[in-house]
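For the sake of transparency, this paper describes our internal protein records without simplification. The remainder of this section carries one protein's record, kept here as part of the documentation:
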Amino acid sequence: MGYAVETVLKDPATISLDGVSVDTKNHIVTLTGSDVTLDGYDFSLDGGWQVRVKASGSRIVNSKFVVGSNDLLPIVGSPEASHLDISHCTIDGAEHDPPPWGTMVAYSGVDLTIEYSWLKNSGGDMIQQIGGTGSIVIEHNLIENGGLSPGTHGDYTQLEGGPFTVAINYNTTLQSRGTTQGLMTEYVAEGEIGHNTMIGTVSYFVSVDLSSIRTTFTVHDNYFDPRGYGFAYPSRNTGTPNDSSPKSIFTNNVNMRTGVVLQDAVRR
């Protein structure tokens, strides 16, 4: 996960691409041109950089982020952004809770994909969707240790806006310290959380908000090692195995400590 160790990372201050502006004083790279790719940059240099996305078809790949003395949120997507793809990146919050949202990826646009990346040591949340619509794809990532800043309430995912179609699949989540919830899905019209391996002291690994679901949301084929309160967050408005709602479907979620399978009984 993350960028390959043999990658020779470049200094963001040297970026010279059409549709990209570089503010070396404030350590901010802004993408305003469509279909721009930032490939192989070390955004941890000089106290940490921020990438602001204000365009469509942007890609941030094979790069390194560390929140440092500048306390900059690593990746911010504005409402003008669409189809942002973050791939093969390492994003280290270094236990910071950077303003204004206290997360590592904050996106307000349409369609977000984060894949094959290592997100770790967030002071607050890992990924926030703040407004916007479309699809959210979070797949093949290592997500490790959120909510490390004192007094924060971290989530691996926090979604606002929508409606969203969500695919959160084939990730590994690890939590050994801090205070966090897991994969939270609010304002979701449909989607799935599947084939994830979830380990550690997360309060609840998943949460399915029934109030926004238009078709169905499936939680399936996950393996979890619970050291918190449980697998699925239970409340009047969230789905759990064997709830009464046809909108939430739970199948083959395996407790790795006991072998117990959490899933719905056959509905007639």
